[in-house]
Input
Amino acid sequence: MSSEDAYTAEPFLPERRGLAALREAAAGCRGCPLHRDATQTVFGAGDAHARVMLVGEQPGDQEDRQGRPFVGPAGKLLDRALAEAGIDPAEAYVTNAVKHFKFTRAEPRKRRIHKAPSLREMTACGPWLAAELAVVEPELIVVLGATAGKALLGSSFRVTQARGTVLEEEIHGRRERLVPTVHPSSVLRADDRESAYSGLLSDLKVAARVLE
Output
């Protein structure tokens, strides 16, 4: 049985666990079928000694094309909100629970439409996130949205119930502090974008206070 059939990234992890070695190895990951349609693996980026790690769902269209996380409109909005909350985006580490873009198309050559990863795909990608956490050792994880929350905290996670609170949980064998909030892309989709942005900013201010 191939690794892809087994749905796990574990066989693709390198012996050396620095971020550069992890990023290089992740480029060849075939731990689930998502790699087939994606342009490339989008690994985490940022300060290797960051005090805060931000974990989103998966790369979007722009991230898939450019090979870096949070470079599209949602990433720009996140950077703005982080700066307003008092967290320097340049001092954070950003990544996603799933490292390949999952999408659908209404018609060939039409715009690629984001599709939420399954629990099986999130679990398959878990070893990469565990390795990133082990290397960066952040003081705080900001959980961006429901999918990231389920990947880190289990399938019962509800972002509406947990957002803006400080949680302490064991994640991949490490005791972690987490502040969940919505994914910035949900702010861009909101009918009342101003109110949605204020909510995101309020949650990120909670995170900033934890880091004081």
